[in-house]
Design goal:
- This protein has 431 residues and is mainly beta.
- It is 13% helix and 46% strand.
- It has helices spanning 2-23, 25-31, 140-143, 167-176, 365-371, 409-415, and strands at 36-40, 44-48, 53-56, 64-69, 72-77, 81-89, 92-102, 106-109, 113-128, 131-133, 136-138, 151-155, 158-159, 180-186, 189-195, 198-199, 206-207, 210-226, 231-234, 250-264, 273-278, 284-287, 290-292, 295-299, 313-314, 324-331, 337-347, 358-362, 382-385, 388-397, 400-408.
- The strands form 6 sheets. Strands 8, 9, 12, 13, 14, 15, 18, 19, 20, 21, 22, 23, 24 and 25 form a 14-stranded antiparallel beta sheet that branches.
- The protein is elongated.
Length: 431
């Protein structure tokens, strides 16, 4: 009986000791270290040395090395490859960390104001209207169950690329009393329907009863340019149609230089806006091949200098972005790119692509005076922290125009077809 009580006491002491050790703050710091660390060649990662934990790299062909300095232990990324880092306490293993070292990677930050023109894949339906016929007012489009946001890609077996392609088929079908056989793209589904054009009694022409559009235009900000592949990324968010509020499905598009003419200052409930005009010669400086939740992407015909940071700089992955001071590059007057102070209020280390990775706040007095904070047209402005490109401005908080969201740069690079872990994917050249 006495032996049983002693066993229970010892077991209780061990249990309490394990619980206390688990609650020990320095040990918790080590346990909270990510299971995988990704570093660029030449970088280092600092581990806390607040308790006697030892680290070892078991690999013989090491791509990383360890340095002890004061109260920190540094993991040095010496050359590309994959390694393991083993942490132990008092001879007991407490953590295994995978360390991936990738080649040093640099891009040129943007900040320039750009004009954007997107051409839709087919023609986009942006509304319905009634046709005033001898039998009353009707909308052929609504009768055919065509919806706002639909994209008409074919009529009677012929591919439709622009609005001018549509008119001849409408008049011919109306005169013959035959339907138009439409092929429609609707939210990744293909829909077929028959639409009978009706004759407007006042104008004498046949009509669809639909408002359609084949292009969209606007302004934004360049985020980065990758000189090796000639690829760029801009805006940091998807371009949606102003009427349907749905993302525009891109056939192709072009970007040109633009000049900021004035600023509509933001206030609570009103985010404000950059007012700009396309360059007078409208020279095409690049193409658009992708319109995604992370921005627009394509290739440039030639580099775009910003006048203050024209050399390639390193990037920072999401897990290495820190809360604290940073800067954005953007244009608020003419075509001059300027740097303005901001604060990274919070940042989320992300394993998978997401559009909202940071919360930022404008702290620059000059920018607050000129714009009130983040305004429309500022999306895509590169965010730089400690000489590294970490992301881009994406959205403004409507009720607080001094603050907004930012996207981590690695996700924009991924959308551009630039794999920082491997080789880039090729895009068609701009023309």
């Amino acid at each position: 009986m006495k032996f049983v009580w002693i066993s229970r006491i010892i077991g209780g002491i061990l249990l309490v000791s394990l619980i206390a050790l688990g609650l020990y703050q320095p040990l918790q710091e080590y346990i909270s270290i990510p299971n995988k660390i990704v570093l660029f060649e030449g970088e280092h990662y600092s581990l806390p040395k607040s308790m006697p934990v030892t680290a070892a790299v078991p690999s013989h062909d090491k791509g990383i090395s360890l340095d002890k300095e004061n109260d920190s232990l540094h993991v040095n990324a010496d050359r590309p490859g994959n390694d393991e880092l083993l942490l132990d306490f008092a001879g007991f293993p407490i953590k295994k960390v995978d360390v991936q070292v990738i080649k040093d990677f640099k891009v040129i930050p943007g900040g320039q104001s750009i004009g954007v023109k997107l051409n839709t894949l087919g023609v986009l339906v942006v509304g319905h209207h009634l046709v005033d016929t001898v039998k009353g007012k009707k909308s052929p489009g609504e009768l055919a169950k065509v919806q706002i946001g639909d994209i008409i890609t074919e009529i009677n077996g012929h591919v439709i690329k622009k609005m001018s392609d549509v008119t001849p088929y409408v008049q011919a079908a109306g005169e013959k009393g035959k339907p138009l056989n439409l092929v429609i793209s609707r939210e990744k589904k293909t829909i077929k329907t028959a639409l009978y054009p009706l004759k407007d009694k006042n104008e004498g022409s046949y009509k669809l009863g639909l408002y359609i559009r084949d292009s969209a235009a606007g302004i934004g900000t360049m985020t980065f340019f990758h000189p090796d592949s000639k690829k760029y990324g801009a805006l940091g968010h998807v371009i949606s149609d102003m009427d349907t509020k749905k993302p525009i499905v891109v056939k192709d598009g072009q970007i040109v230089r633009s000049t900021v003419t004035s600023i509509e200052k933001g206030s609570n409930g009103d985010p404000g806006e950059k007012l700009a005009r396309f360059s007078s010669n409208r020279k095409i400086i690049g193409n658009i091949v992708r319109n995604s939740p992370f921005g627009i992407f394509g290739t440039l015909n030639e580099p775009m200098g910003n006048g203050i940071a024209d050399k390639p700089i390193p990037i920072t992955l999401s897990h290495e972005v820190k809360e604290g001071p940073a800067q954005i590059l953007t244009v608020v007057d003419g075509s001059k790119v300027e740097a303005f102070d901001i604060e990274i209020v919070s940042t989320i280390p992300q394993k998978f692509p997401a559009t909202k990775g940071m919360v930022i706040k404008v702290t620059d007095k000059e920018l607050l005076e000129k714009t009130g904070g983040i305004v429309q047209g500022m999306s895509g402005s590169p965010i730089i922290q400690k000489g590294r490109l970490i992301g881009a401005v994406t959205h403004v908080f409507v009720n607080d125009p001094t603050s907004g969201y930012g996207v981590h740069i690695e996700w924009m690079l991924n959308e551009a077809g630039i794999n920082i872990y491997d080789k880039a994917v090729s895009y068609p050249k701009a023309s």
